Amino acid sequence: MILASQLVFFTCIWITLMPNASAVAEIKTPHPRCSSSMEQTRKQETKMRKEDSTKVWPLKYKQILHIEDHDFAMRPGFGGSPVPVGIDVQVESIDSISEVDMDFTMTFYLRHYWKDERLAFPSKTNKSMTFDHRLIKKIWVPDIFFVHSKKSFIHDTTVENIMLRVHPDGSVLFSVRITVSAMCFMDFSRFPLDTQNCSLELESYAYNEEDLMLYWKHGNKSLNTDEHISLSQFFIEEFSASSGFAFYSSTGWYNRLFINFVLRRHIFFFVLQTYFPAMLMVMLSWVSFWIDRRAVPARVSLGITTVLTMSTILSGVSASMPQVSYIKAVDVYLWVSSLFVFLSVIEYAAVNYLTTVEERKRFKKTGKISRMYSIEATQAMAFDGCYHDCKTDMDQTSFSLHSEEDALQGRCIGSLSADSPRIQRRKSLGGQVGRIILENNHVIDTYSRILFPTVYIMFNLFYWSIYV
Predict the structure, then answer these.
(1) Domains of the chain, with CATH numbers?
(2) In what residue span(s) does the Neurotransmitter-gated ion-channel ligand-binding domain sit (predicted)?
């Protein structure tokens, strides 16, 4: 019984394990078609790896340049003499210059030259290797920044515009395309006849003169510009490179490089928009000197129009300029022009006031009758050459029977003989009143027609001779 039960038990186990063993055997035994396809796939992958060398290139450049063997957090030759870094610049464009913000925007290629023996590699052909921006983060590069810059960025279309070229002896060329907006300390005392001197300053941020020495690679020829650079309001007179030192109390002395350029403003735009309209308004104000002094609406409206126009020109120029506390050249011209326009209005106010005063004096001294007959007496005097008094003219009506010639002679003789002291007093008074009116009204306008243009022309000659 015991043997029979053991036999039955082993028989059940064998029946259970046999299907699994056969399945495993089938899995381990490859199908001939499957094994051939797998071998072909392995061959194709090996062939692709051989043809596509870019997949193994990162390993190659790390091995050639010994990237993993050195600590590039430290500068070349750490602990010894400062590493010399040469700089040259290719200016691509000056994008904008703002007087209100006192800054400029420039796009240029910044190139660095230095030698790092840690990057030296053996080469039979002595050819350099060129890399893109991906290698920059793995090696040491100079930490140049722009002093007084407001914002700057490296162009990244379609990829970051960075180039690194390494020679077999370890010499490195690092080039980057940058746009910088920096401050320009402008002087507007001669605006718009001014010339501005702006500069872009380059300096190392972390390394002072004991660690890094900045210099222009090719001296004065290190700064190159595009021949087609042009600005709407400025003419670029000069580009120059210079160097100096900057001292910081906490960190020491640093090498600093300067990109200097001189800008001279084009005057033609401001002549058309500011100076010429101001001249026209001043000359228009002179028209009132030829208008009759009794035409009050015409002369007053002309004066007010020219004053308001000059105020508009002044406000337009001030809106486009920074709020500086000193006087600019354009302010001198516009304020003097406004003064001439204002004086032309004051001139008519003086003429009108004197006319009113003289009419009141004449009314008080000669009376209403004298004023009523003054025009008729003046007309008669123009014909016969004698002064006519109203009372004498009325007394002469009794001599109507005489001939015309006798009547004229009688009136002249009668005017001289009858009541001579009182008549002569009236004659002298009337002559003085007429003479005062003529001298204080017509003469002021007449003198103004000559005096105003003469003084304004002299001012223009003096102004342009100083500022141009």
Answers:
(1) 83-265 (2.70.170.10), 270-364 (1.20.58.390)
(2) 67-266
